[in-house]
Description:
By secondary structure, the chain is an alpha+beta fold.
Amino acid sequence: MKELLIEFRNTSSRKPGKILYYRDGVSQGQFIQTLTEEIAGIQAACTELEEGYQPKITYINAQKRHHTRLYCAEARDGDRSGNVPAGTVVDREITNPIHFDFYLNSHAGIQGTNRPCHYTVLYDDSDMSPDMIQLLTFYLCHTYARCSRSVSYPAPTYYAHLVCARARTMLSAMKINWFDTKKPPDLTEIEQKLSQHKNLKNITYFV
């Protein structure tokens, strides 16, 4: 995290005033643990960068593994595939009565019924309005470099998936025996092999 903050400062000549953080792959039972650990890590990285530097943070969890589907009350209100139009937000009636969460159908369906993404705002000290968070989330679904249409959840989350998939492929090629108790894997060596070449830093080569 600290490296990202330094790179942002070097590129834009200023530190970020707000950090918008999308998190994927966390079940509801892990919300508290993940939130506590990762918010503390972000804040610690900011403090390491500069004493007293604590930008506003908005932490949003994105979930696609659920069984909720959205339908139009009238068929004429749907898109060509019969789904609710891209950009449809539901933030009442079927949402959590305590936490701020919402469903966003950000993409146009090609075949079958769309599965909207379920977003839960776990932490927000930036005073962003619900409408602003929902609109910004929808805008980020239009910035995915592999597709000229809007996608089902924000592009930064997609990019994180691509990076993890590439790392998993590289680890598989190394044929590491993680269960060898006599000669455990050298994590430092593995990290060096997975590190980027200097010419690839700050480039979305994984896209």
